[in-house]
Structure formats: structure tokens, C-alpha cells
């Protein structure tokens, strides 16, 4: 979704030209040439970004700024002031403007400042959504199982340490991001929670995403950009799938963990950030170290506090409460009235092993809410199927009559069972099984 921008300036030539340039940059631009027109525009729509001139025909933009902040409290404001009028610029910042522009405004500078402001708007929206999601997930962190209670008690103790790294370990889908967010809340952070999936980015982009870049650092670097380490200053940076980081970048991450300092890509100035790093992986990092794919010194630095998150199979007591919380959250998202579970559905939830953990549980519930129309969910997808052990939903039910099959055949059946439960997603199935992808293919009989 494009960022909406209200440009308030009485210079018709500049306003028309700036609106055209900003539109080409992807902004949805509204214009106003007076405070009267500005109030009318704000009555129709609340923009994400406002560029406000100081001198207008019917009043002073600086005097209007407090009213503007009341009318659109979430908007980012840039104040345009006369060249050299530093006092007005400082006063505007104190009154709530994010930045100021000196007039006459250079279009390149206008576009650069607008882009930066748009990044802040998008970040605020992501944070708002994350906080909203966290409210719904908070109930999931009131566990009944001893294993999960022990994990959360450990987090409470870790939260008292201001900046030491934390390494979250566990199978795919156990809820590592939820745990990281919980730690962020426990610390009562003033800074943001920032999440990056290291496996989702090409190696060439990870450094820029983490540490930012200066203008001209590479071909498409048309403007300087803050990295997530910088954005997370004062808060928490969650590095999901940290085992996927390229070796060259692992050294730079280690430097940041040791000194709190970093350089943007293409930059020479040393910057600092107090972001706490929480890393997560479902890989065995000691094996990765032995194979030369992960730095040993980084592993030791990340694992100052190492937290093993139990799988859903290890905390059966939490399945029903989790399912109830997830259904309530999903009903709110889908605009449905709250629903419950039939007796049969509760039994199925208690029996099913959930190799995909909390993520699989959520997917099953979401599918049931869409496909089942009754007041109580039946969860037929979790019902045991006929047709032999290769199709059963119970991973322990691979005992057959007659001579026992070779262990290799039992393994192949179970691997296929997990692949089916992960809906054909082979990488996820391999991670759920805790084996490498080549090993997964070999046990599946495809290598």
C-alpha cells in the first residue's frame, strides 16, 4: 500500500512540480495551499505524511502544528522553513515535527526526506500490528506444562540482563518469535521489536538489511538507508534462522555483539546501537561449527543464554489452551463469531502429535474455520485414516502384523507422513525432523 502524503504550500508552481515528482516516487499525493484547505483535506482523509510550509496566506504553519498533531496524531510531519531560520526549525522539531526542509526546497532533498519519513511510517505500522498480535498471543504464554513453565521462568531471569545475546533453539513452528516478543515485553523496552528472517534474503542483501548502506554503496543504492540494527536501537533485534547467515557476515555480527558498533555498507563512520540480539535456529549449531558453516566464536557469543523451547509433543497439557487462544485470535481476524470444539475435536487435539508444532496447529485451525460452518469445530483433518500405517496420523503406529519391515522402510514411511503433514513443504519437513535436506531426500528414497 502506497504512503499518502499531504503537501501544504501556497506556491502553485512548486506544489505542482513536487506533487508530480513525489507521485512518480510512489506516494499518493494530496495538496493544500492554505490552512483552511488543509483542515478540509484532513477532514476527508488522514495522511501518513504531511509536508507543511511555515508561511501560509491565512496563518503560520508552526502555530498550526499542535492542531495538526491533534487532528492526525499518527502522521509524520516535515516542516518547511526559510533558509537560515534555524530557530523555527528547532521549534518545529520540539513541537512534534520529525524533520525540517530549508526553502527553497531542492526536489532531490525533498524526495530523500519523504522516503525516510515513509520508512518510519511503515515501521510504525509494522510495530502497531506486532503489538496487536502480541496482545492476542499473550494468553498463549500462560502454560500448564512444567516444560514450558520452566522456559518462561528462565526468560524472566534473562530479562534482567540488559544486552546479553539470547539463542532460542527448537523445532520448526514451536513459536520462537512469540518467545522473543515475550522477552521484549518482559524487558519493558522503549525501543522497537525488529524481526528479520535470515533465510528469506539473498546473501547479497543480508548485510545491507542488517547494517544499512550509504548512497552509492552498490548499483541501486540511490540513497542512504538505515539497517535493522540501527532501527532496533534501544529495543530487540530478532534474527530468525541465524544459522543461514553467510560466513563473511557472521564476523561483522560478532563485532557488533562484542562492541555494539557497526558500519553501514560503503560507509567509513562507526555507528552504535544498544539493540539486544535474540537469535533463533532449528539447526544443530555445534554440527554447523564442526562442518565449517558457522563460526565457533559467534556460536559461543550468541549462546550466553541458551533457551530450548519444547515441542508441542513435549507439552501436551498446553495443546487445548493454545487451540482455544488461537481460535479466538483467528475468529477475530476472519470476522467470525467465536466457536468452540466438539468432544471429538478435543480428543483429536489431545491425540495428534503435531510434528509441525504450534504453526501446524494454527494452520489446522485456520483451515477448519474456513471449511467447517458449525458452531463447534470437528477437526476432521486430524482424524486417523484407514489404509495402513503409512497413512495413520499417529507416528508411533508403525507396528504391523507379520514379519517386521526393515528399519529403513519404517523411516521412509515416517518421513512421508511428516511431509504430508507439512503439506508438501520439503524444507519445513526436514527441519521438523531435525535433519539436513540431503538426508531428508535420502530417507525419502529420492537420492
From TrEMBL:
Keywords: ATP-binding, DNA-binding, Nucleotide-binding, Phosphoprotein, Transcription, Transcription regulation. Residues 141-370 form the Sigma-54 factor interaction domain. Pfam families: AAA_lid_14, HTH_8, Response_reg, Sigma54_activat. The modification 4-aspartylphosphate is found at residue 53. Signal peptide: none annotated. Residues 4-118 form the Response regulatory domain. PANTHER family: PTS-DEPENDENT DIHYDROXYACETONE KINASE OPERON REGULATORY PROTEIN-RELATED (PTHR32071:SF117), TRANSCRIPTIONAL REGULATORY PROTEIN (PTHR32071). This is Sigma-54 dependent transcriptional regulator.
